[in-house]
Fold:
Amino acid sequence: MEPSFLSLVPALVAIILAFVTRQVLVSLFVGIVAGGLVLWIQTGEVSQANFIANFFLPALGAKSYATILLVYLWCLGGLLGLWERTGAALHFAQVVGGRIARGPQSSLFFAWLLGCVFHQGGTVSTVLAGTTVKPVADKHRVSHEELSYVVDSTASPVATVLPFNAWPGFIAALIAGTVPSVIGDEVGDGIKFFFSSIRYNYYGFFAVAMTLLFSLGWLPWIGSRMLAAKGRARETGKLDRDGASPMLAGVDEDERATAGKRGKSDYQPSLIDFFLPITVLLSLAILPYVLFEKTYINEAFMACLLSAMLLAAVRGMATRDILGAFVDGCKTMTIGAIILGLAVTIGYVSKELHAADYLISLVGEQLPPITLPAILTGLCMLIAFSCGTSWGTYAVVFPIAMPLAWQIHDDPAFLSVCFGAVLGGSVFGDQCSPISDTTILSAMFTGCDLMDHVTTQLPLAFLAAGLGVVASTWSAWLTF
Structure:
């Protein structure tokens, strides 16, 4: 179908319903159904209203969703279940986090620090940081809204600021050859341009810096909803608002304290139970990229899980208890798998209806040059928020934005500024959209209600985006 305003209807329906009803499952499903109706209206064929055949089956049968299930839900779910059974995560939080986290603010700083350490990308960081820091943060009366913001805002933003991960390679493939006089045809040329232009990723830097100030209690304004959540947790100990629906069932502190005794009664948790799997994960994720510019993220997660299982067996846990812990961990991911499946499908709907293409068509080539970085930032924010993906936004926008920027002003510095605008604007949408996997996982693994996380995070993210727009506009002005 041709791109039109109707292309935006499914995503708009899902997002508006999510804000109004706070029922994410229903909202996403209705948005997908709306996609079928749009196809029917556009084509005049009743068969196009079959949203199951047209959207669900292609989206959920794709390699990307299979990867989510295998890696982020089964491998990580199994790992977290094993850590729960051995007490590894709690032991790490008590020993290492206990030395750093002595109160609410230092607990949030611990979360910020872990977000920077686990900088492999949004989903990796949110799961590992959220799971590790939650017991410590809960103990010190940190609201789940605060914790989910810190975890989410140090996920994708950090991945673009400390890009020793898969991001440069993916983006380099999109921009290579788009402006041959500046960016060569090879992926390596794109990677060099990526690293040389990181300094213009203003949203990424502002988001990470603001989150640090927030975690230290030095941010003068945090928004009324976040302030209310902070006051509620400190004064009453309620980590969620009344009526909230956390996405992942919590485990109380007493249950966590005995987690290591559910397998063999004499199993004693050790720091190696936590550090060995994490070392395997980060080593396989980072070293191949640094040495050979290749990524093995999926393999790294599988090796991480297997190393944790093998270590537990070597240290005395029975095989049936290891497998039981794996299954229990996977069970906790059921709701997350359903929500992520719906999120992936609504993203597929937006792609098939060319929602991003329609938004880009609204931006003509006759623009005041100095405003282009701001317009690109806003456009990418809107696309990524509507579609729930930064990488999907990059795939659509970068091949168009780079030649457009060069046509408007053939200056390498201006091209880098526009590159940074697309990079940061897309991360905003990925971080804040209620249909984004990063947003969903941040809420899930910090025990927060999804829409509470979205509504408390948005004002702070908008502030970072506004500062980024001002900075990129100033940088663009300096190139003339």
The chain has 24 helices and no strands.
